[in-house]
Write a structure and sequence with these properties.
Layout (H helix, E strand, L loop, with lengths): L1 H16 L2 E9 L12 H14 L8 E7 L3 E7 L2 H15 L8 H14 L3 E7 L5 E4 L10 E16 L7 E5 L5 E4 L1 H7 L7 E11 L5 E10 L6 H12 L1 H11 L3
Antiparallel strand pairs: 1-3, 1-4, 2-3, 4-5, 6-7, 6-9, 7-8, 9-10
Helix pairs in contact: 2-4, 6-7
């Protein structure tokens, strides 16, 4: 027990030696906020959780709520990492100027959380312990993001279902190992029918993906390929035709000695 306390004391001293403070100071027009009359614990919990994701804390990084001060509602955050401190500065500087270029989804979500808390009656200042960095949030204007984005990708697999629910409706295929259907045209359906549960194909698809949760909302087949079943002799013949006899001679001695 004595050794455990000894180690804890050392860690605490090291933490104090590399301590960086950062403050989030909330206030209203009437300056009525205090440590006892501030943000509810539920809202505060959501804010701090969102902030921890926004600064991408690593395993050994610490970022703690070390104090809540009055004469406003000031959250004092303390970290042992210069990288985390710099991340706090960059994120808050960008959000305060409505510059969202380079910010990831977690950082944008944090900006939205600040916007929600401020509403129409609160203000926010963010600054480091020396106030060499200090910004004030006037009005957060988040850019409108599209609901979906498209992505072209390739998948391999065997068709496990093909067709449509009605004669005039769109047809789809389902490929083994994937949890979404792929829309196909009438001409594609006719070409693919003979491969149903018979052969693994290569599919080039256009996926429509939600910006909110990255889920695939729909997919369309652009094209497909049937893999070549050539044997070794056929493959060697194709290589010889394409690259000449030199390529065969180059690797013959390496793999077929004696």
């Amino acid at each position: 027990m004595q050794f455990f306390n000894y180690i804890c004391d050392i860690k605490f001293d090291l933490f104090k030696m590399t301590r960086y403070n950062f403050t989030l100071r909330f206030d209203d027009d009437n300056h009525s906020l205090t440590a006892e009359n501030g943000i509810s614990i539920g809202t505060l919990s959501e804010l701090l959780t969102s902030l921890s994701k926004a600064v991408s804390l690593q395993r050994d990084d610490k970022l703690v709520l070390s104090e809540i001060r009055g004469n406003c509602y000031a959250l004092n955050l303390t970290t042992n990492s210069e990288v985390v401190q710099e991340s706090l500065i960059v994120v808050h500087r960008k959000i305060s100027t409505n510059d969202y270029t380079g910010l990831n989804s977690n950082q944008r979500s944090y900006a939205q959380k600040i916007k929600t808390i401020l509403g129409d009656n609160l203000t926010l200042q963010a600054y480091n312990d020396t106030q060499s960095f200090k910004v004030e949030f006037q009005k957060i204007e988040l850019p409108k993001l599209p609901d979906y984005y498209n992505q072209i990708s390739t998948i391999n697999g065997v068709i496990t279902s093909i067709g449509g629910r009605s004669l005039k409706g769109k047809s789809t295929i389902h490929v083994a190992g994937f949890n979404f259907d792929i829309e196909i045209s009438f001409s594609q359906e006719k070409k693919l029918a003979k491969y149903f549960k018979e052969k693994e194909l290569i599919f080039f698809i256009n996926k429509k993906i939600s910006m909110d949760d990255d889920e695939i909302k729909s997919a369309e087949l652009e094209s497909f390929e049937v893999p070549n079943d050539n044997n070794f002799i056929d493959t060697a013949t194709e290589i010889r035709k394409k690259f000449g006899d030199e390529i065969i001679e180059k690797y013959k001695d390496k793999y077929f000695k004696g």
